[in-house]
Amino acid sequence: MTFSIYLPIAGNAINIALLVGLGGLVGLLSGLFGVGGGFLLTPLLIMIGIPPTVAAASDSNQIVAASTSGCIAHSRAGNVDFKIGTLMLLGGVAGGTGGVRIIKLLRSLGEADFVITVVYVVMLGGIGSYMLFESLTAMRRRAPEQPGALPAKRSMYRRLVELLPFSMHFPRSKITVSPLLPFGLGVVVGVLAAIMGVGGGFIMVPVMVYLLRMPMHVVVGTSLFQILFTCINVTVLQSYMNHTVDFVLALLLLAGSAVGAQVGTRIGKRLKAEQLKILMAIAVLAVMSKMLLGLLLEPDVLVAYGGAH
Amino acid sequence: MAWPTSPRRSSLPSRLRDGRRGRGALRSSAVTLSAGLVALVAILGLLLGTNASAQSDERKAPKNGVTVEPDRVGVDLFYGGAAPRVHATVPAGNQVAVRLMGKRERVELKTKGKVGGVLWMNVGEVALESVPTAYLVATSAPLAELAPEAELDRFDVGYAALARDAGTEATTFGQFVKLKQREGVYRVDEGAVDLQPSGSKQATLSVSIPLPARTPVGDYEVEVIGFEHGRGHEIGTASLRLEQAGLVRALRSLAVNRSLIYGFAAVFVAIVAGVLTGLVFGRRAGGAH
Fold this sequence. Notes:
The complex is a heterodimer.
Chain A: E1 4-7, E2 12-15, H1 16-33, H2 38-47, H3 52-76, H4 82-108, H5 112-140, H6 156-163, E3 168-170, E4 175-177, H7 180-196, H8 201-211, H9 216-242, H10 247-270, H11 273-296, E5 303-305
Antiparallel strand pairs in A: 1-2, 3-4
Helix pairs in contact in A: 1-3, 1-10, 2-3, 3-9, 3-10, 4-7, 4-9, 5-11, 7-8, 8-9
Chain B: H1 6-10, H2 12-32, H3 35-60, E1 66-69, E2 72-75, E3 85-91, E4 95-101, E5 104-115, E6 119-132, E7 135-139, H4 143-146, H5 149-154, H6 159-166, H7 170-183, E8 186-189, E9 195-198, E10 202-208, E11 218-228, E12 231-244, H8 246-257, H9 259-288
Parallel strand pairs in B: 2-12, 7-8
Antiparallel strand pairs in B: 1-3, 3-10, 4-7, 4-11, 5-6, 9-10, 11-12
């Protein structure tokens, strides 16, 4: 099919089937791993001729549909912890606002972009390798089917966490911690997401798995719940301040991604927590490799649009 | 509203008119004359028709001898680029350059370079002072054979001429041209123009200039420049307007003038789409369980 449509804000004509297909692929990842998928879709959209600012903004509009769709599917299966999700979301908003200030300060100091990118690549590499290694050993040990629940080692971290006040029980995640912990972690993720310029799903998911010790399936659903609100916020702000949301583009992408998210959720349900973690680890490592390659290979064109911040 | 194929379409009315005239002639002669005469008249009619259409084309052409067809292109939801055709009459023996150029603007660019000896990253920002939004040139001969570089510069023919107004060093400008060429909005087709002799003193040209879908909307100037013995002279100019139409215009104006409503509407539609998909799949899943 070579039927193309003109996108009013992007100002270019693109094949319809290509857009719906890309949406479907990203929706699949979103339903499976609880990530927004912006890390993958935005560069792909730029590659097929959408201006970068329009690609990023319209992508967030599309994620609203995918995460709504995925969130419904996950909450039906009891996989969304609204209590923790809301706490982390509040922390994320606070952290995100602070993060934008921090990035401005860093940029004024000079080679901030370089440091940030290196930190990000190292962090993704570290998280991905750890997840992969940990899940593989867990599977080899044939641990009892306790999704995500690791043998409780009384580590330094654990003891510190237990010192926090106002202990609260979260039945969905089957954990009892101080609400300060998810809020605080939300702040950290918010700061990181703002600095890295990505939605933060790939930081959020490992944080919930390893630092909050939430079951893997609940992590995916809860992450989608937070991404939904983050992306609503971004879509409205981008439309209002920059006029960069292309509604026609978003509509075609979301047609694919809303369905993709359902399929992803379905596949996720059939997988065991450890299998899901291994796939997630591979995805994290793939993202890292892609970033690393982008940094190591000489670009075709040595200039790009956009100057002043 | 005009379409990529509209050069053909705009010549349609004259052809229709000829057809009608031919049929009229056919009917009147059928009453009085034999079948053989009818055929003759019909052929005559056709001949007269072609003649008339050639005349009407000539009448349409303005004094300066350059026309662009269509001169207005509507950009709506199913627009996929256009290919306006430029017609001109030039003195015999001239070589020509046909140049379609958008308005000039300041462009800010990030430059990429190696950091720490290994990583390719954005390392700086440069501004190009005055570069056109689109620059599509077709010539009848290689640039070097048209005129010396200084003369080409005088008529803004060739990338070297643009570099002069960009106010940046050559490598950056070269990379910028590469970026624009990728998008299809900068192009120099050497030798793409065919000159057809028309009489002993004149030649005509008719060349189609493909505009990719991503060419920004706005006004474009089409100029035909003649070159004789390495000296250039302006043959004439015409203008082309690319404008939003229909749903594209409506959506774009909503996005700019009612941006908050647009943003909320975009979120609302996305949520509804997500909920609907969730419900549809949920019901199906419920049936399967």
